[in-house]
Every structure is written in C-alpha cells, then in structure tokens.
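Section 3.1: Structural characterization of target chains.
Under the original work plan, the team committed to producing a structural model for every single-chain target entering the pipeline before any wet-lab resources were allocated. The record below documents one such target. The sequence was received from the expression subgroup and is listed exactly as submitted; it comprises 360 residues.
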Amino acid sequence: MGSKKLLIGVLLVGVAALNAGAKEQRTAVPGGIYDKPFLKKGGKGTAIGGYMDQELFWNDKNKTFTQHRFIPFLHGEVSERIHVMAEIEFEYGGLVKGKGDTDGEIKLEFATVDLNFSEALTYRAGLILSPLGRFNLQHDSPLNDLTNRPLVNREIIPTTLAETGMGFFGTFYPSEKSLLGYELYVVNGFNGATATSIRNGRGSHKADNNEQKAVVGRLNYSPMLGLDLGASAHRGAYDDAGDHALTIFALDGDFNRGPLQLKGEYAQASVDGAVADQQWGYYAQAAYHFLPGVVRKFPNSVFTGVVRYDAIDLETRDEKRYTVGVNFRPEEDMALKLEYEVYDQDDQSNGLVFSVASYF
C-alpha cells in the first residue's frame, strides 16, 4: 500500500469519527499514558511523575545489582482539549570499568501532542508509543507482576516500540457496559537491520530510511468491565530501497475477576527478504492476589502469586521460559518482586530475580 493511500485511510477514519462519541465511562487502555497515578491527582497545568526500577539477578552467569530505569513523565495541559506528553528514559548509566564513558543511555521514550475533538476522535502527532499488542502500551515496570518482559515482547514486538508519525485514536461505547477503542497511525517504520533482527530494526526518530510509510493500528473490545480483547497490526517497507515489507500481527487478551487475572499475547511476523522470514511468539500468564491489608503498616497492601510461560520461534533459534514468582505491593503503585526463571536453552541461566519498581 502506497504512502498516499495510507494517509488517506487514516484521514477517513478521522472524518468518520469526528462527530461520534459518548460520555467517558472508563479508560480504554488501563495503565496507558492517560492512566498514570500522578495524573489522577487532578489539577491543571503541567504534571510531573514517572517510575524507576532496580533489579538483582542471581544465577550461574550473573550475581549483580542492576540500576535499570529511571523514567520521568511530563504531561502538559495546553487547554482542556490539547495535551502534550513525554517520557524520558535514563537507562543504566554506570561507569564502564576502566573507561571514562558510560554503559547507559538517555533517550526520548515517547513525545506526543494530542488534539481532542471528541471521545471518539483525537488527533495525535509526535514520537508515538506504537499500539502493537497490549503489553507495549502497558510496559511500565510497576504495572507488571514479573521483572523481565515476555520474550515475544522483546523479539517480535520490540518493547518499548515508539515511532515518529501521526494519526488518530478514540473510544466508543456500543452499550452501557461495553467499550470499543481504536488507534491508527502512519509512521516511519522499521529500518534495514530488520532483515537480521526485528528488535535491532527499530526505525530512526529523525528520518525515514525510505520513501515508504508504515501503518500501525490496534482495535480493542471490552464487552464488560474486567475483560478486554485486542487485535493489532504493523505493516511497511523496512529496507532502504523500499522493496521489502515487514508485517506484524498480534492478538492479546486480559481477564480480571476478583483476585484472579489471566492475560496473554500472541504475535507473528513476516519479514520479506530475510532468511528468517516467519517468526512468532506468545506468552500466557496467571496471577492471584491474596492477603490484602495483612501488613498493618500498609493497609492498602496485597501479595500476588504469578506464573508465566513464554515461547518464541525466530526460525534461526527458538526459546522457552517458565517463570514462577510472588510480589508484595505495599501500595498499588509500588512492587517488590521475587521470581525464579527456567529456560530451555543452554546459553541462558536459570535463576532468581528480585526487583523493586515504583511510580512517583
């Protein structure tokens, strides 16, 4: 599909939704960029918040503390219908032994400006957090019950995936209990390194490497509170000449009923022109919350037991991982996590992971 057709398609979605909408009932993407704890405190102007995490790995290969992330979040309300948001990621950053440089990085995680016409139609431009799967939109460490991200969200959907572009998103309410949300953007897309690694092929935020544009979108449907189903896709040319395309398709689901949560995600990638032209992966996770408020000093506290199964097949290699863990949240926005990971690959080490993550 050519760039002009993609642009026209996105604009048509905007026109169709311009006069639609309903009174806001609930968040379309719980934990998404409009659903942060520091934004719920109210007030206008500029809000500052974010999160941090630290990890301890204890296995045959590593016995080390890792200061992984410190991520400030900025939200500016230009007016009731115009919002500017950004995340800045400080990752690692410690001194390299025997050298004067650092082994970390500072980068823009995302930066967008939103112009709201109605609940059903908001125009967004900037460095956009790609709506490819649910996890990429909900990747914050304090949100997740396990430390390491799913394998599929490292190799097939390279979280955190953010791309420069523009488009629309919105929410509809087909019935009193149901919700239908969409996001659709035209973006620069991936680069030539995709032929050997999708993760390494994440595109430049400065300029496109070809004259073709990619399109990414997600449709999610929640028939009732506690159940959300999503389908998403990304397609566009990735090589410099624009002759080869990358297509990623994903399905996701999340179910919450009382103390029980079930969730998972499946993604499949077709990399035209690559040796490993068909790749796929998925994860399935179950969590159970227990002993709420049992720690007297923290009346809002809760414990969570969690298990997850991961699998990826990249044609050149495949990998499976089993994880069992428990975490303690003294408050909903902070978690202390302990888990044990078992891999089926000799080049990976089974072992313990302990981490702490908190919003601020």
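The radius of gyration is 21 Å.
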